[in-house]
């Protein structure tokens, strides 16, 4: 199959998958008990029966469920993700304001996890039975086993309460006043704890994976040959071995994108990071169906795009995949 | 003394007070400038208090919008947008004389047409229907005079024109024919208050900047108020400890109150919540056996130890509450039966009511609900009830609701036995008390109506009389009788006033301590020393 046909087929699958995600989520959300009109009434300090009816009519909640679904899908087809029940603002605007912080958090965590994880794996692989290797193995296991929200809370206790050197509220300081570079510095300062919290679980995975991969590669014939030729150990490790050992990491990094997004949801709630995750969490509690569906739609879209790009990169990187293994 | 303060509310005479009166006695000239960062766990839907109740909207809303009057800490009304007012001798009208230099943030003058439009809007759309229900019309004989006509005397009228209850919204913006409930200006409001909206990031932050043309000269003192919305209470408390937040109102968790009391550089006060009147209570479903029996309700009343709840569970931060009317209100009657702990009496009453203990020592089973996310005031006390009511042979199952809508649906559809609840008095019994006890307000599906399904014609009669009685002493007498009757019927066991506290940076001056606290203009707050 040619590349164009392959991409077209994958895009079609992607669209079908997105519609499936929307429909499934629509029914799942509506199956949960609770009434959005009651949430709005609660936020208003109570409402009369007439006002409740008006709220339901205003948001189309008085219509049959299938009619609501049909209306919603028709709007989505026209690029309209609806209006938030709670904020009474277009969902697309609410999400647009939060995509940036979520992407920043996810990318920062991913970059940190890959670079530090690989470095730890490489050092551990050089002396697989050494104390550093054992230490990294233990650290990785703890990092992998600890729930991300627990890690976050522990870091907050350590670095925002006992030793208060990092902020815990949001992405920028409330009384920030400064130039562009100062703003970047302020954001990075706020990013440290949440990014590290999100990274730690993936850091554990990458360090273990790169350690195993490096041990494997360092025992390969071509590495032995390089050493026999008198190539320096640094060159052997970083030029000859690492380039091959890092390939599985790239593969796993692509697959882990969905997990990163779901991890970000928890981290954002713990650190009050103004991304999509916190909005999703709050929207569940508020029964804000359009906002929640919009976020899930965007999250699914990001994962589908990431997977598609990963698959495409395989096709171009590895001829065996492109030719169907012949 | 308290009655005297309240008499002012019902006063039919004119009150003329200098419009720029200060609520606080200044030791020195306040500093001007600086930013105050306020923490909040409440997420506002929008910023227009004319069509939305609740703290989340009221706090920023009262900085953006001015109201005709405002109140001090002694329940005394002061001029604000209205420089004077006069209630007619028959109590059937109220004339407001507006200040002539008030402008909206877009430069347009505030006129009587805006007052008329605002009152009509609030009457039609605000959830507190009793506030302006008696208003039949509003006349505007000239640009700066508004006359409110009433179907019957309305003793709570002046209070209803203060704080977040009566923001004067611009007719030229909100009166453009769009649905006011979903009006785009609700999220980008134009008011005439001391601060203008600079930015509203839904669910994240509200930035308010000084209104340089505010009609009270020299105010506000602060340049900016940033309201940081942090839904997680422990995070916002930590941010307050670390000086990232300067001002944290509506703090009710006892462990955090105690913690911030010890924090260096912070002050903590429980002043500023008198009109909110937040009551934490245990409600009975009076429409369902065995709780339809007054004796059973009274027995539970004697078994629940209010003293233990306030002193032990809530660490001494909360005040006891034994009445439907908040104990800081002039209408509270101390003679109401207190139902102090008496387990022997409770057991005897249940025996007498025919609920004998079975072989397992239990008489019957009940569930207790609570508002999810309500913390120790709700879930904590619900858990306590399980062990406490076991002592009188009632097997309690604590039923959790995953979220507010689920709880609200259960309670408003009478699918409950007992429930913990938090309900506010909102300044005057007409606004926040009547709704819970009037039989005409038994409305299925509506939360914070009379969800107990409590009916007593005498109570209906007394409340209806109190709602139109302008003589403060007579009105108090009606409420005294009301409290004695509901104290005996006990549709609710009132437990404690929510221990609302405000934590603040001690370098801030004039912390809002009026009856509305931070739900009223904060134009007098200032930094005692220079801050950015």
Mean pLDDT of chain B: 92
Global geometry of chain A: globular
The secondary structure category of chain A is mainly alpha
Distance between the termini of chain B: 43 Å
The main sheet of chain A comes to: none
Could you please describe the fold and organization of this structure?
The complex is a heterodimer of chains A (326) and B (532). By secondary structure, chain A is mainly α. Helices cover 78% and strands 0% of the residues of chain A. Chain A is built from 15 helices and no strands. In chain A, α5 (91-126) crosses α12 (257-271), α7 packs across α8 and α7 (148-162) packs parallel to α12. Chain A is globular, with a radius of gyration of 24 Å. Chain A starts with a helix and ends with a helix. The model of chain A has no long low-confidence stretch (mean pLDDT 84). Chain B has 532 residues and is an alpha+beta fold. The two termini of chain B are 43 Å apart. Mean pLDDT of chain B is 92; it is low at 1-21. Chains A and B meet through α2, α3, α7, α12 and α13 of A and β2, α6 and α12 of B.
Features of the shown structure:
heterodimer; A: 326 residues; mainly alpha; 78% helix; globular; B: 532 residues; alpha+beta; 16 helices
In short:
Chain A has 326 residues and is an all-alpha fold. Chain A has helices spanning 3-31, 36-44, 49-58, 65-77, 91-126, 131-145, 148-162, 180-218, 221-228, 233-245, 247-255, 257-271, 276-286, 289-317, 319-322. Chain A starts with a helix and ends with a helix.
Can you lay out the helices and strands and say which pair or pack?
The complex is a heterodimer of chains A (326) and B (532).
Chain A: H1 3-31, H2 36-44, H3 49-58, H4 65-77, H5 91-126, H6 131-145, H7 148-162, H8 180-218, H9 221-228, H10 233-245, H11 247-255, H12 257-271, H13 276-286, H14 289-317, H15 319-322
Chain B: H1 2-10, E1 15-16, E2 35-40, H2 55-64, E3 69-71, E4 77-79, E5 82-87, E6 93-98, H3 112-125, E7 135-142, E8 145-150, H4 157-160, H5 171-174, E9 195-201, E10 205-210, E11 224-229, H6 233-241, E12 247-251, H7 254-262, E13 266-269, E14 278-284, H8 294-303, H9 306-313, E15 319-320, H10 343-352, E16 364-369, H11 379-390, E17 394-399, H12 404-412, E18 418-424, H13 429-432, H14 434-437, H15 457-466, H16 472-489, E19 492-497, E20 501-505, E21 508-509, E22 526-527
Parallel strand pairs in B: 2-11, 16-17, 16-18
Antiparallel strand pairs in B: 1-5, 3-4, 5-6, 6-8, 7-8, 9-10, 10-11, 12-20, 13-20, 14-18, 14-19, 15-19, 21-22
Helix pairs in contact in B: 8-10, 15-16
